[in-house]
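Consider a concrete sample entry:
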Amino acid sequence: MPEVTVLMAVYNGMPYLPTAVNSILNQSIQDITFLIINDGSTDETEDYLKQLTDKRIRVVHQSNRGQGAARNAGLAICESEYIAMMDADDVSFKTRLEAQLCFLHNNKEIGMVGTKFVYLSSNGNLGFSPPLPNDHETIYKDLLCGKHALCQPTLTCRASIIKKIGGFRIDGCGEDLDLWLRMGEISRLANLDEVLFGYRIHSDSVNMRLQAEVQGRYAHARCSAKRRAMGQLEPSYKEFLAQWNARPAWKRVAEKLDLYALSQHHRAFSDIADFYWFSGYARLIWSALCSPPRTFQRIFRTIRKFRKSWP
């Protein structure tokens, strides 16, 4: 039995799905199981999946239940020692799995490892690679503070640990941060200091379409983690939302402005990757002006990255 299962949940993955699938099938490690959960797609995804003949691929079709539920369906039937996440619109570079498995073999205390990534435009051009922390302490601290520290589809984890915590607790979108924080409470997290992944930016991606819901889920996950750390009961999502929506009007406006700035930031890198220099840099400047706190976070992460490389 292969020691790693690559788990991909897909909902309406065309036209990027074939590129994502091929990036896994062409990994430097060939002895894998590739488990694809088709979460009730309504486009040409099912037709494409039916054409796949590679014996390493296993496809499961189900009615649409959401990202978290689809991934849990995959986790329930995974029998390998390691589970690698993958999204249907991204690209894993050729040595991604080999590098991550080697790292996990040599670092038994690490339960989950990601990689650095580069933004990938809708046209397939590579763009900027944002700085990410490598060590557990910084990763976990950044996650609690709402900073970008891990990238879901780059992660490879020990199956025993992700199953021990019960997998994903959220059926729909925004399910990842809650899982990362719970993983970090019983194991250690890491990122490889190497770009091994292409993260595609396009208007139809879940994070672009459902930003407000994702951010609400993330805020609830951070609140719950802090409550657990203090030995307190976690609020239900409904209870948390009642408090979240009761915030002062200026905070809600600032949150919407921050989400808008984030979308402009992502689209800026897509434009730059596609050589639309003027619109790309104009979006970057506009994004920075719309959300100064997030801009300062990015500057701080960049400074932190270079400080660690100083002699």
About this structure: The mean pLDDT is 88. The first helix runs from residue 17 to 25. Strands lie at 4-10, 33-39, 57-62, 82-87, 91-92, 110-120, 156-158, 188-200. Residues 4-208 form a domain with the Spore Coat Polysaccharide Biosynthesis Protein SpsA; Chain A fold (CATH 3.90.550.10).
